[in-house]
Amino acid sequence: MATSLAPERYDEVQEALKDVVDPELGVNVVDLGLIYDLGWDDENNALIIHMTLTSAGCPLTDVLEEQTAEALDGVVEAFRINWVWMPPWGPERITDDGRDMMRALGFAI
After folding, report:
1. What is the Cα 10 distance to its own chain's centre?
2. In a 10 Å sphere around its CB, with 0-12 CB exposed, 13-18 middle and 19+ buried, how is residue 82 labelled?
3. Which parts of the sequence belong to the MIP18 family-like domain (predicted)?
4. CA distances (Å), origin 77, targets 13, 26, 27, 59
5. Which DSSP category does 79 fall into?
6. Domain 2-105 adopts which CATH fold?
7. What one-character-per-residue DSSP string does 17-48 give?
8. What DSSP element (H or E) covers 3?
9. Considering only CA atoms, which of 10, 40, 35 is closest in space to residue 20?
10. Which residue in 19, 20, 33, 94 could disulfide with 98, CB within 3.0 to 4.6 Å?
């Protein structure tokens, strides 16, 4: 059964996930708005990351999973990414920090 993360754990995990950078855009997955939710699988004692990609055909899931494993090393013992496609990602999900990062990289957003 999945439950919500305690607020302090949520913040810790979210901060760690800022080390996961979309290889095509050069901005972290949190500020891109790719993380839809974080939960906890009580049965398997694992973090569940509800995450999407900028497009369903993105070939970089393996890269993002590897980066996620590195970012969460020492934060949680186990995690699982639940790839979510609905609702589809859109640029309105990008945080203000993410917009600043994208502008610094030359994106007109």
Report:
1. 12
2. middle
3. 11-75
4. 12, 27, 25, 26
5. E
6. GMP Synthetase; Chain A, domain 3 (3.30.300)
7. HTT-B-TTT-SBTTTTT-EEEEEEETTTTEEE
8. strand 2-4
9. 35
10. 94
Q: What are phi and psi of 49, to 5 degrees?
A: -105, 115
Identify the burial level of 95 via C-beta atoms within 10 angstroms of its C-beta, where 0-12 means exposed, 13-18 middle and 19 or more buried.
Answer: middle
CA-angle at 43, arms to 78 and 2, nearest 5°: 85
Per-residue pLDDT tens digits for 24-68: 899 999 999 999 999 999 999 999 999 999 888 878 899 999 999
**Tokens representing 97?**
């920090």
Structure tokens at 5: 């993360």
Is residue 14 pLDDT above 90, yes or no?
A: yes
Whole-model pTM over 0.85: yes
